[in-house]
Design brief:
Elements (H helix, E strand, L loop, with lengths): L8 E7 L3 H4 L15 E5 L6 H10 L4 E4 L10 E4 L5 E6 L5 E6 L11 H9 L5 E6 L8 H10 L1 E7 L9 H7 L5 E3 L4 H9 L2
Parallel strand pairs: 1-2, 1-7, 2-4, 3-4, 7-8, 8-9
Antiparallel strand pairs: 5-6
Helix pairs in contact: 3-4
């Protein structure tokens, strides 16, 4: 039974080049009873994230949907940040985690940008965060995860080089020394679940 999450736990996933196909080896392997919501920042232009969500939803145990502005995060649901918007999490007076899909400018040409998303979590009261960094060009996510690591109890899981289409984003967090585990793509789902504690 999904319920609103008051600052307890959250899984956050960032990916770019090679992500849409790689996600098919992660999202469908998450258990229905996952006791955290997941927010996924996949670099994509506007109009593409809805069909990605629909496709993953068909093959997954969890509900997978495109993130909507003002939506309250629920456990057992995967929210895919909208292409062409910035995605942030804000907290209401009751401590519920709320999605903000906004028109803040692109950073490094990216909209959505994982760094902006991760940075938004710093000021939320959510205690346990598992961050996953999958295949992708560049280093988006690294700066935001570093900021989170200073402020929170987080676990960082990176996809290994052999299974990445482009070993850019995972390499950045590995080189920054902020990763807890580096695993092949097929182990990402299990590893994240192990850290979040089902």
């Amino acid at each position: 039974v999904s319920h609103n999450v008051s600052g307890d736990r959250l899984i956050a996933l960032a990916c770019s080049t090679g992500g849409p196909k790689s996600l098919q080896s992660v999202i469908p392997f998450l258990p229905k009873e996952m006791n955290a919501p997941m927010v996924l920042v996949q670099h994509m232009p506007a109009g593409f994230t809805e069909s990605l969500a629909a496709r993953l939803n068909e093959i997954s145990n969890l509900d997978v949907k495109e993130a909507e502005d003002g939506e309250c995060l629920k456990t057992g649901t995967v929210y895919i940040a909208q292409g062409g918007k910035q995605c942030e999490v804000i907290e209401d007076a009751q401590g519920n985690l709320i999605l903000s899909e906004n028109d803040k400018p692109a950073r490094g040409g990216l909209k959505p940008c994982a760094d902006i998303f991760f940075e938004s979590l710093v000021s939320c009261s959510v205690e346990h965060i598992v961050c996953g960094v999958l295949t992708g060009m560049g280093s988006d996510g690294c700066k935001g995860i570093r900021a989170l690591k200073k402020n929170k109890d987080i676990q960082v899981v990176a996809q290994n080089e052999d299974t990445c289409v482009v070993y850019g984003m995972p390499r950045a967090v590995v080189q920054a020394g902020i990763v807890n585990e580096v695993v092949p793509l097929e182990d990402v789902a299990d590893t994240m679940i192990k850290h979040i504690g089902v």
